[in-house]
Amino acid sequence: MINWFNNGNGSIDSRISRKALAKEYIIVSLILIILVVSFLWQVFFAGKVLLPADMVNTSVYPWLMAEGNSYVPGSAVHNGGLSDPIFIYYPMKYFLKSGLDKGTVPLWNSNAFCGYPYLSKIVSDLFNPLDFLFLVLPAVRAFGFSIALHLFLAGLFMYMFVKSLRINRIGALFAAIVFMFNANTVVWLEFPTHLKGELWIPLIFMFIIKYYDEKRLEFSIAAGIFLGMQILSGYNQAVQFTVIAIAIILLINIIYDIIDKKYADIFRKLGATILTGVIALLMGLCFLLPFYREFMDSNRAAQERSSGSSLNFRYLLTMLDPDFFGNYTAGRFWLRGTNFIESVRYSGIATLLLAATGLVFSRARKAYAFFAIPALAVLINSVPFVYEVFNHIVPFFNKSEVSRILMLVPLSLAVLSGYGMDFLSRRFNGSGAGPIQNQAGQQNSPGRSSASGLQDRPVIIFTLLLSAVFILTVIISAVKFDTHIDLKGIGLDPLIRLETFAFIFFFIMTAASTVLILAGIILQKFRRISILLLIPLIVVDLFAFGMDFNTTSEESQVFFEAPSIEYIKQDSENYRVLGIMGGTLNPNSAWIFDLQDTGGYDPVIPMDYASFWTKFHGGDRVRPNGKVGTDNMNANFLNLTNTKYIMSYGFIDSRGYFVDNLEAMKNQEDSGEIRAVTWNFMEYIIPVIEVPPDSRMEFDYHIGKGEELVFYISTNPGTWNSGEGNGVTYRVFIEEEGKADLIYEKPVNPVGNEEDRRWYFEMIDLSGYEERDVSIVFETDSNSDVQNDKPGWGNPRILQANSFGLTEIVLLYNIEVKVYRNYLNLPRAFLTHNSSIFKDNEEIITILTENDNLDLMETVFLEEKPGMPVRDIAGDREGYGRDSVEVLEYGNNYVKIKSFSEIESYLVLLDRYHEDWQVYIDGKKGSIIRADYLFRAVYLDRGEHIIEFRYEPGWFILGVVVSVSVFIISIIAVILLMSIRKRKRRKGIILPESD
Question: What would the mean pLDDT of 952-979 be, rounded to a whole number?
């Protein structure tokens, strides 16, 4: 039987038998697999999929009201922070799977932003070698099983790494479990790019450190291979942070080399580290080249998401109690201005105690690096000067959330906790006798202390003091840091607002961890069992937080085909669809049904499309989160983007009538307390009329035909955990000639009823009052306790049919959602015989935005670029009555069109212009000209032509050749170096041992 308390080094050059090593890793793998399956039991045993269908089905049309929806419309979602998995990650994976099923690798995505490169997307996982499950399983199933595989590998890689530090098996297993299930891993689990980037870090560290210890070139090359794998995962931030951590490890090694006067080793380590970086860069070139090109031409290139001093030190309290500020799964998270997923960093109480023990008592040199790494991460987040230094030396450092560097904290804690477990185990094994030996018979490496000579008392005192500090920190912080209202009473009321169970659970875990660690030190008879019990304790601790965090759903509920979708899909032409009013057909949702979206949702949006979109809709730029949606209809925009169908949950009109006309209200007793604000609640960003608990607003209005009154109601989410206030009753009246009709009434009490902790969406038919002048009255009526009841009317408005000036917009479908047909939309490809040439593309967008209802098939507006002369043409409309255009083949990477015209013309394709698209006219290469600001045009002579558009990204092809070549060469180099070393060892040549 394997002795889990010995030093059992399982590294590559270990001299223990291969059979024993294989047995060890089989046992470890089985343990980790059991933990993964248990953690994701609903995926493996209940037939669920790891996707939050409730984010869609409770609030997004058409699924909200469609037949077959098993969710209650408007009900609270399980976890309000998981929108991106269903709106970005899953559509991306579905798109890739759909392309592979058709026999092509989709390098271009025609489904959003009028087309954009798919290969350079950080969430595409196009180059991830571990995503093979998507080749054999439906995307909806593969999503969860792929995450399970990556979670298992993260634990296995961490076990290998910690073992390579000469930490025993029990310590390595503890560290692996912490790395797999700490809060940072769990909260990002359904955002798979994060885990796919982070799981490579242990292997990178392992081979980097092994080279520093053993000076074997194959280790430096192997580190480069795995760093390259991390680059190919697409999670660029993880690469940045990993490189920073490597620099810290290198710096600490250099410091010790200076102390030990090993000056030659300094240059050797610097050279090997540079080699690692070069190999990684060349391996990742197939992703980095197109990514860099697209990123620099995107909306994110000019945006700075981080600016230093981003760390609110209150976040660090989640290292002690992850639910200190509430939790999304409990329907509330009350720390203002923060994101729970971005802030929580919990790794377990036992982990903190063991990590501190390992750092203080193990005396291992490498442990100090894993203290310096999280310390620097905190400094970067909290000290502006430190942040600015890294902002200037690390490319793109300020383009994403710098707080995510704190992901290095749980990773480092996992390693340090392994040292702590190893320290306790060696005390158990050593019993005061000399240095502990590993199975190879070697003494512990220099810089490590044995158990010999250490007394129990310092360790006991240290552990008890550490536990007391933890408990006092939580109590003091609970009193000191207010939540969302003024402190009341004697100052202890914030304790009442804590999650009671979570607070009690914290004390239980602290007590249990302290008792087991002290028992392992004091009680010799119980040392083995107490140390072993720390493993199930950390599992219970981390599972209690994370097991219910990620939403699972029935497979049939994930983007099921609603009748309105089926209705649109009957049209087999090329066209785009647009969901409006913020709650209809969320961006990217159309992809699941092989429909193309006029908008889209992606962290990195092409700059020209972002500019095109915003200039049509009166904005300066697309929001940093990359969501593109609109309610403001513009005829030129709809027609140019080939938008044929518009989906809306109500009649199309401008929004916020009552918000915009707030000053016109009357009969309000205290109008000074009424104000127009915006509430940001979960996925809702809604203009709100905030009113007192007792209020009355009256608006005069003429009700037209087919109009509906639409609004949300809620109380301010900041008051939900106050313990004061007992709700508000909302009423709507129609008053006419002294008569008042109550048309709506609802009591809402989020403090006393958790079901009321949400927005209620209401739509009231006004057909009974058509063509009448009335007063619409909004009234709130409080109960006996009005303290902290802050009601709001969310964007009350009138929905009107066809009120926005597009006479050719016709309502075709009106069941679970309204589907409008735009009869003015241009075909995807057409011929035009008149052109206007401009040297400045901005002049073109000015013409398009300032001139309504242009005949865009009459004239094409072309941009003349240097080196690309544009031919000006002008034809007689009567001369091209026999024009014909037929799209023969339309794919993501290839478009084939047949055209005929009796006179010269331009073929216009309403897909986004990009320099990597090439055109071939009757087999001969031609030129694509940027047309109408965003799209493609090709000059054609008279007659019949076959036009082929091919996506040929030269940078990508070059990158693939280099990446594959470097990978193969690196693997061969590692094999050759290992075989040479093995051959020399057989000949009896003495090789250098570890430092």
Answer: 90
